[in-house]
Amino acid sequence: MTRARSSAAPGARRGSAGAALAAALVMAAGLVAGCGSSPQRPAPRPLAPLGAAKVDVRPAWNQQIGPVQFPLVVAVNGNVATVAASDGSVHAIDADSGRALWRANVGAKLGAGVGSDGRSAAVVTQTGELVVLENGSVKWRRAVGARVATPPLVAGERVFVLAVDRSVHAFDGSDGHKLWSVQRPGDPLNLLQAGVLLAVKDTLVVGQGPRLAGLDPSNGGVRWEAPIGSPRGANEVERLADLVGPVVRAGDVVCARSFQAAVGCVDADRGVTAWARNVGGTDAVGGDATLLFGADASDRMTAWRLPTGDVAWTSESLLYRGVGAPAAIGGSVVYGDEQGTLHWLARDNGEAQQRLATDGSPIQVRPAVVGSTLIVVTRNGGVYAFRSP
After folding, report:
1. What pLDDT shows up at residue 75?
2. Which residues pair with residue 362 across a beta bridge?
3. Which among 95, 100, 163, 337 counts the fewest CB atoms within 10 Å?
4. Peptide linkage before 114 cis (omega within 30 of 0)
């Protein structure tokens, strides 16, 4: 069996379809599935000489928060970026200056975070305890009763949690009183990787295996379901196709990757699939209202036209470099790699524009865009900000 990636190494990479399965921890009846070792991946393709940088991007500031060994998602609210480290520390940072607005520690190792509405921030510990903070102080704690890898959603005076077993839980934002929970039929294997959980108008949109589901946030009732991926393969591991977050949202359209199966978009207002394309890959996609970007299991990068799913361009310039989820900013799409290097590519054709280093450890999460600032987090806990002068 292919060895699954441990939660202590969320940036572990892959160089073949088989090794792609090592990119996430697989849960089977509550146990880690894994034996043997993953195939040796090919050596990274040498980087072509860059020459003169085609975009002027410079480091703005950096901070150290401690190692990040869980599927962190940076929460962005206005000019504030909220991040967290594995040791339980949560940090709200001013994106312009890098100044710490507040810091707190929840007293336990983290398994998921960060969710925030700009007032309250929420994380989940490795033991499944939901912790909500306000201005750096713990407001309340509640047991979820399941393992969680997806950042909680804080919205409408409530906190929503999507567990690894695909159950969905709703809590009152003021005191943590549990409002409802829904347990959907699940598969024997589940993915310990950030999934899909967001609000679109008055609908709670969640990933349920390879499908997006629209739930009534007042009681968890299902309003619609729309598939993105289609499980395929010779065994249960190869058929894993859970949706991977964070998503790209353009109005009512939500786009996501189905783990090792597909990339696609759903109209969350009507509850129908707009388009889906069969493509491998294990990391979240990035983009905006025009283009969707992502890399496959070999780090071949593709840009799709978001309204139609047509391919705009592909590039093999970063093959086997362990690139993660990208972010679109200005005229560029930015990928972080396994060596902690950031690559700026032209959004219209994939041409290399700039390269900048961080601390040498893998880029941990999808870069976050806060106005004109790009913020990245490394596995060693470096938080780096870049912007054009």
Report:
1. 98
2. none
3. 100
4. yes
The helix/strand/coil state of 133 is: strand
Predicted confidence at residue 10, as pLDDT, reads 39
3-class secondary structure, 22: helix
Helices of type H across the chain: 17-20
Token digits of residue 252:
């009512």
CA angle at residue 307 from 302 to 312, to 5 degrees? 30
CB atoms within 10 A of CB 186: 14
Structure confidence by residue, pLDDT tens digits, 33-58: 333 345 677 999 999 999 888 999 99
Q: What whole-number distance in Å separates Cα of residue 352 and Cα of residue 95?
A: 26
Cβ within 8 Å of residue 15, ≥6 positions away: 39, 40, 41, 42, 297, 298, 320
User: How much of the chain exceeds pLDDT 90, in percent?
Assistant: 83
Element (H, E) at 306: none
Structure-block tokens of residue 79: 């000019």
1, amino acid identity: M
Which helix (H) or strand (E) element contains residue 48? Answer: none
| Lookup: tokens for 105 | 């520690």
